[in-house]
Amino acid sequence: MSRWVVAVVLASLLAAGSPALAEDGAHATGRKVWDVLVLRPLGVVQVVAGAVVFPIAWPLAAAVDAATGADYADDVRVACIEGPVVQTFTRPLGE
For residue 71, which of 62, 58, 79, 80 has the smallest C-alpha distance? Predict the structure, then answer.
């Protein structure tokens, strides 16, 4: 099992390559591999963390909004929920 993991990690690193040495097609493939193997799973972790933090942070931001007239509650929603969801699930692959 560990040989398989090492092979996948090594293949993804080799596929990513150096931007200065890669052709446009190879570089785009490397970005997509990096996106699928690393960034999307990290995005799922970020979505879960945002779902945990949001119920704590939003009431505090709403209280500050009520006291100051600012719009921090919307910023908290975007930072904890919208941003990670868009980054993980709707962003084009490799971008």
Answer: 62
CA 68 to chain centre: 32
Report CA-CA distances (Å) from 3 to 9, 11, 14, 33, 63: 10, 12, 16, 19, 52
pLDDT digits (tens, 9 = 90+) for 28-61: 888 999 999 999 999 999 999 999 999 999 999 9
2 against 48, higher pLDDT: 48
Asked if 63 and 73 touch (Cβ cutoff 8 Å), the reply is: no
Retrieve residue 80's tokens.
């904890």
Domain boundaries, the chain: 2-90
Cα three-residue angle 89-61-46, rounded to 5 degrees: 25
Q: Which helix (H) or strand (E) holds 71?
A: none
